[in-house]
Amino acid sequence: MSGDDVQPANATKGGLSEPANLRWFGTAAILAVGMVAGGYLLGDGLLRAKDAERSVTVRGLAEREVTADLATWTISYSATSGSLAEAQDKVRRDTASIESFFKELGFPADALQPTGANVSSNTDYNRVTTYTVRQRLALRTTDIARAQKAVARQFDLVGRGVFLEEGSGMAYTFTKLNDIKPEMVAEATRDARAAAQQFAEDSSSDVGKIRDATQGYFEIEARDGDAGGWGSADSPFKKVRVVTTVSFTLD
């Protein structure tokens, strides 16, 4: 057998056969397309995530002046004597004086109600015992103007011999908060959008929809003084305020 008649056992030794070549190129093409598509989707996703991050968070304020619609006055008074009977009699006379005082001002009889009474005794070093009788009456009325007149004349009670104890003060309350809540929340949201609009203009953007919103607590305080204490309790003129925190998208 001549050398020309001898054929190698494997004609593709040292190289790839045509089917293998096709499979290799096919696999490479699929991988390339996948990488391109994956890169596009990743890039598009990052752009969309970046757009989603374009937002601004601001606070909006709404305030409204209101007048209290309920007045309550707890009147505490007492009498002290070496005789329990005398102390009790003095408190009875004081009670009649207080009832007469409010009747003269035009309050109905049921506007004034007793809310409690107590008796205490004290014995000093000389073994002398004294008795203190305390009584509490409560006025509750929606006639704010008449309540103010009563407060203005409260020293008339002192002139009638009534010993008013500490804590005998008028308290004014605004009870119709739920009636104004929706309008105030809407007002606070508009105020927040106005603030967001300023940020948007500075960044050449437009204010979009609300992403998130949090409503703060409604606060009722004295219109012309610090919240709480005498300034709040003594005045029927109140100020209601609420602050909302709102996040807007920027387009």
Structure write-up:
Strands 1, 6, 7 and 8 form a four-stranded antiparallel β-sheet that branches. A four-stranded antiparallel β-sheet has the order 3-4-2-5. It has helices at 18-52, 84-104, 144-152, 155-159, 177-202, 229-233, and strands spanning 55-67, 70-81, 112-123, 129-141, 170-173, 207-215, 219-222, 237-250. The protein has 251 residues and is α+β, with helices and mostly antiparallel strands.
Describe this protein with a few key phrases.
251 residues; alpha+beta; Translation Initiation Factor IF3; Alpha-Beta Plaits; four-stranded antiparallel β-sheet; 6 helices; disordered N terminus
Give me the CATH architecture of the largest domain, please: 2-Layer Sandwich
Global structural class: alpha+beta
What is the H-and-E element order? Answer: HEEHEEHHEHEEHE
Average of pLDDT: 80
Number of helices: 6
Total tally of structural domains:
3
Given as residue ranges, the uncertain stretches (5+ residues, pLDDT < 50) are: 1-16, 36-51, 227-232
Assembly context of the chains? single chain
Mind telling me the C-alpha Rg? 42 Å
> CATH class of the largest domain, please?
Alpha Beta
Biggest sheet features: 4 strands, antiparallel
In percent terms, what proportion of residues is strand?
Answer: 25-35%
How are the SSEs placed, and which strands pair?
Elements: H1 18-52, E1 55-67, E2 70-81, H2 84-104, E3 112-123, E4 129-141, H3 144-152, H4 155-159, E5 170-173, H5 177-202, E6 207-215, E7 219-222, H6 229-233, E8 237-250
